[in-house]
Here is the input.
Amino acid sequence: MHGSLAIKRISATPGTAPGIRTGPEFAKLVDIARCIGCKGCEVACKEWNELGVEPTENFGSYQSHRDLSPDTWLLMRFNEVEFDNELHWLIKKDACLHCEEPGCLYACPAPGAIVQYQNGIVDFNQENCIGCQYCVTGCPFDIPRFNSRTKKVYKCNMCVDRVDAGLEPACVKTCPTEAISWGIKTDMVEVAGRKVEALRARGFQHAAVYDPPGVGGTHMMYVVPLGDKLSEYDLPANPTASPRPLAALNVMKKVGSWLFGAGILGAVLHYLTVGPETAPNADNDNSPIVDR
Amino acid sequence: MEARKNHAHSEVHRFSLAERLVHWLVGLTFVLLLLTGLAFSYPPLFWLTVLLGGGPTARVLHPWIGVLFTGGVVAMFWIWMRDMFISRSDVVWLKAVRHYARHDKENVPPAGKYNGGQKIFFWVQSMLGVVFLLSGLVLWFPDSSGSTTLATMRFLHYAGALGAGLLLIPHIYLGTVAFPGTLRGMLHGKVSHGWARTHHPDWQRDRAEE
Here is the structure.
């Protein structure tokens, strides 16, 4: 396992980075059916990444905090939903999914603030971040969080330092039920398929793998027991790397640059053909007589 | 020295000090905002952020300069609004704008203190000022809205900048090299009689009648 520092994409930088080193793409697989809701992964994430403890309150849920934050990169969401005359306790590991087509990276205007490593990890480099939060507008999963004190944006980096050293991410390491597993992406897709089959055999006929093609697949996938209830898990059904307003913005930027160029060219052409006003009385005549 | 004094004496007063200060406040802040905005919109132009101290600093200063810009636009609107109502003679002037572009003076209908083009420029830029302010405030405090709202505001902010940036091209071109003698009015407040008679004959006539 090497090559996490082989860069595949760099924000606001034309072309793709030359892949000098190649290696496997990794993926984290979250089997929601095996999760017991212990939140050990949240603690491991805080510990490994040295993220501060944030006070919280009891708001009638098993959930530790209400939302992700610049210091909380991983949040287990506990959604209590009633359907089919039953209460369902839906758990979702909310953190960066490390899209193959990263909307955050595409939206970022600061060169090098977001990079995608060849192994699939999408990482924020805070030293290059300008704090504009365009990544927030590009992320279909509402993951990046802005720290108003440091004026930078933060999110899960898939423990890139551990992965580079050949280790699994901290949340994977700590999970007591192996609900989170880690490996080469193609292998994990296979594992996920087997898990789905097993779930279907147990009566979860809608069990599904969440690896949405709209973002080119993700490097954190889910096995969802109730695959027909994605929205109840807060999982978008059809996420895309280029949300509609941004797609429209990108078209308008292209049109805009042409129009701006045409405008300047028009002024230059006017100057070269019609030229400036040279009438004798235009500027150098100071007789105060009004003769119209 | 004496000659220059006489020369200045016989010029027409066009813009007060307050008008010129407000114009250049809006002009300077707008250009800074446009250039840093281009830097945030086009990665090949990201280097323009050095104008305001690099990426992170430009990101912090852009909205504050926007506050100055907004103040300037409000003042400008207050000062010039009454002069800018579009009259029937402005419509006549606008219909003949192609003659104006060709310096074909015989066929250019007389304009008042401001011609129809300047008046449209004024109203469009004032309206875009509102677009900048509203979308800019949301983008300044992005925590308060969702990503779709933010993306939509980015669209509006860019659309406004495109409109205002495009209008700036004729504004600068016509005000400087295309019509010699125009820039002096905004710099020193005075224009020549000949310039005033050529470009704004009705304004000249009204002044003479006063």
Observations:
- DSSP finds ten helices and two strands in chain B.
